[in-house]
Amino acid sequence: MWPATWGLGLHPLFISRIGQDPESRPIHSFLEAWNLSSWGLQTDPHRPTGSVTISQEHEDPCFAIPAGQAYDAVDADSAVRTAGASIGLLYHGTLALRDGSRNAWKRFCPEPRTLKLTRGELAILTEQFCPHGTDPPRCLEIPGQRFGLQEILLTQDRDGAIWWHAGELQAIPTSPVRIRNTIGAGDAFTAGWLYGLYQKWDPLARLRFAARLAAAVCTLPGALPYSPVFYAQLLEETEG
Fold this sequence. Notes:
Blueprint: E1 16-19, H1 25-33, E2 41-44, E3 53-57, E4 60-64, H2 76-83, H3 101-108, E5 114-118, H4 119-129, H5 136-146, E6 151-155, E7 161-165, E8 168-172, H6 185-198, H7 203-218, H8 228-239
Parallel strand pairs: 1-2, 5-6
Antiparallel strand pairs: 3-4, 6-7, 7-8
Helix pairs in contact: 2-3, 4-5, 6-7
């Protein structure tokens, strides 16, 4: 029987902040349904539960994120007390860098070690750090060295993914699937990579699993698979 925990069988601690409004209830219900801890979930008496409006342009999702949301005000002291000394890996997106939540991010992550980029995000960095143009390995190496990163993950849509580490590159093609939408694919890719890291797989095995998980999410109508069977089948195929 599949364990009543998050899809890949691990026990992450979700740290965020919600409002005292009806929009917060589905979040509690979701955590409870998947047996995820709510210890890291803070409540804000003034700000609303955060919302994001997503639209689709061709295969690329566009996000409209309003200001002044509860997740912009994560209390650093409370977050550190909740996580304690047990935190091993911190995964966050750009929301963690906004407003007051940035203070909590600094407490947890004084020296970021890994960066995950999309092709569009790499183009922005390339314009800033490689204005004269250069090949992809160099475009990854320059920001990697500038910010003291140990590794960079680059997802390239239909052209696969690349892992950079100290000048070394590993690349894989994308799994062929029928795409319904790409919302959630980036987070799925990172989740697959972190799962492989936890399992102590080599980088190529991590890349392959991450790409397979991201591709599988692209076949869904939404950003998340809500059935444990989805994950069970993926893990069985990987282990097989």
